[in-house]
Design a protein that fits this description.
By secondary structure, the chain is mostly beta strands. Helices cover about 5% and strands about 45% of the residues. It is built from 1 helix and 11 strands. The longest helix has 7 residues, at about 105-110. It is globular, with a radius of gyration of 13 Å. The relative contact order is 0.31.
């Protein structure tokens, strides 16, 4: 059974960087699409960056384009989210999710919602001065 564990969250100041990790166990991530979603207090969960493990295709949503970059290390069965130039509005719980059968990383980011997919427990990112 696939289990995902996120790490790397924390408290940072605006303009700083963080790198989140999502380590999978139980199943290799080959042929999955992996997404980073976030949920801020009082808001719906949104897909922000997704990556296909088979061909490396990536997608990042408009609010994070040019600042956030997903990547995958298949040897470590781990997906990363590099977050640069963090803003106060990036404050949220960040989740990684793995799912199969998506035509594109963009489609997964825009359409996936619980209960579909295998989700991690989330990691808190707080951006505050």
């Amino acid at each position: 059974q696939l289990t995902l564990v996120e790490s790397g969250g924390g408290l940072v100041q605006p303009g700083e960087t963080l790198r989140l990790s999502c380590t999978a166990s139980g199943v290799t991530l080959d042929h999955f699409t992996i997404g980073w979603f976030r949920q801020a207090p009082g808001k719906e969960r949104e897909g922000i960056s997704c990556i296909s493990s088979s061909d490396g295709e990536t997608y990042s949503a408009a609010p994070v384009q040019g600042r956030f970059t997903p990547s995958i290390d298949n040897a470590k069965n781990t997906v990363y989210l590099q977050m640069n130039s963090l803003k106060v509005e990036d404050t949220a719980v960040y989740y990684c999710v793995a799912d199969g059968g998506w035509a594109s990383a963009q489609a997964m980011c825009e359409m996936l919602a619980p209960p579909y997919g295998r989700w991690g427990q989330g990691t808190q990112v707080t951006v505050s001065s």
